[in-house]
Amino acid sequence: QERLREQIARAQTIAVVATILGIGAGVAGAATDNSGLAGAGQGIALGGTEVARRSVLAYQRGEEATADRSALTFLAKTGQSAKGMITTFKRFQSALALSGARIDPYQQSHPVPRDRVAALQTAAQKSKYYEKADTPALQLRHDMARAKIAAYTEGSGTVARLFQNDPQGIPALYASAITSLLYRSPREALKKIDGLLGKQPNNPYFHEVRGDALMKANKPADAISAYLNAIKHDRARSGLFKIALGQARLATGKPDQIKQAVTDLRGGLDRDKENASGYRYLALAYGQLGQIGEAELASAEGNYHAGNYQDAKIFALRAQKRLKKGSPAWIRAQDIINLKIRKNK
Q1: What is the pLDDT, as a whole number, of residue 45?
Q2: Which of these, 328, 330, 260, lies nearest to 289 by C-alpha position?
Q3: Which of 53, 137, 225, 265 has a 20 to 30 A CA-CA distance from 290?
Q4: Which pairs with CB-CB distance under 8 Å and at least 24 residues apart come from 70-74?
């Protein structure tokens, strides 16, 4: 992200320089009554903006191409086939061809599918794992991820199409429980997720959905137990579960639970430092405990990670007035205050 911001800043400089040159040429043309020079000035200004835009797009395409090559490396090192990756890009290519759309490859932020296939297929086929089939366990993990993404981003219609060949399989039922939570009722979601927990009682993601449904049903005390189970069975030690647990403790409104919420939220944010909403809940918890300086700093952190740098500085300045000078929290607030914000020109 920082490199992209730097690239955008360079592009903006190009655009500004071109605009200045164009204005200069336009003024000179007007002063000398030279319509050709005036028109050229306008062209320089507009052309500079287009050059700047295309330079950013070219940079993004280069980054995407690098990511594709890295994916091949990671798949090879983990003993997995890249065939699915190539098949996916070919599917994109076919869909683009069927749409009849005329695409200018230089106007895209990603390489066009045809170019991606051409750049990757030979290297992918050289891998000794190219024809290796995924294990059932790995396929299930993949399908569970697809189910969660589809449920949260596309809704029940996409979920039904995605799993039409196995509508009673665990991924389909998992997605169905999530769509019930999002679009219907928490009671319906709880019934579905409890059915899944009967089959896989140690699945942390099922306990997560159970906690989310209980929170939606305004039962934070019960949600705490669900999130604790998610944490217990989570071998990856995800920060998200601890942040959800902290949110549930905060929702009870009980002082002892709010104190514990701070611990849980801080633990979750240690694992997921860029979770802006987590800092918002941490700020609320500190505020309810009367620790205003810490609450202001948490708000500064949340705004910082959300990209709201000016607001982050304001909250950091407010935090410093209440924090002990020289303390780790005070120093962190100073770091945010000292952040250099690149101004758009």
Answers
A1: 46
A2: 260
A3: 225
A4: 72/120, 72/123, 72/124, 72/127
